[in-house]
Specification:
The chain is α+β, with helices and mostly antiparallel strands. It contains four helices and four strands; from the N terminus they run E-H-E-E-H-E-H-H. It has a single domain, classed as Alpha-Beta Plaits. The structure holds iron/sulfur cluster.
Length: about 100
């Protein structure tokens, strides 16, 4: 399991840090929460889910499976930087549309 904090949403209440000080911390000087572990130990899974459910602004997201994330990431890669150029080249070869008429 992994856990992330949406730092744009965090309301700096510190509730997650009080609940799990080894997993969350508040950064200086603004108090926005940060996650201080790469993966959540099994023994803390329930506590992290609880902390996420108690965040008043729903800024904590629990990612249940590291393996699932990797699979999703590889199945849905970011678009290649060359992708717009490829489309532009196709448009020039076929200016009238999909059937080739102008
Ligand atoms: S409980 Fe939510 S709002 Fe409060 S510090 Fe943690 S992430 Fe931020």
């Amino acid at each position: 399991m992994r856990v992330v904090v949406d730092q744009d949403l965090c309301g700096t209440t510190g509730q997650c840090v009080l609940t799990l000080p080894g997993t969350f911390r508040q950064r200086e000087p603004d108090g926005v929460a940060e996650v201080c572990v790469a993966t959540v130990p099994q023994a803390l899974h329930a506590a992290v889910r609880l902390a996420a459910s108690q965040c008043p602004v729903a800024a904590i997201r629990v990612i249940e499976s590291d393996a699932g994330d990797h699979e999703r990431a590889s199945a849905d890669p970011a678009p290649s930087p060359a992708e717009p150029e490829r489309h532009a080249a196709n448009d020039q070869r076929n200016p009238g549309g999909h059937d080739g008429t102008v």
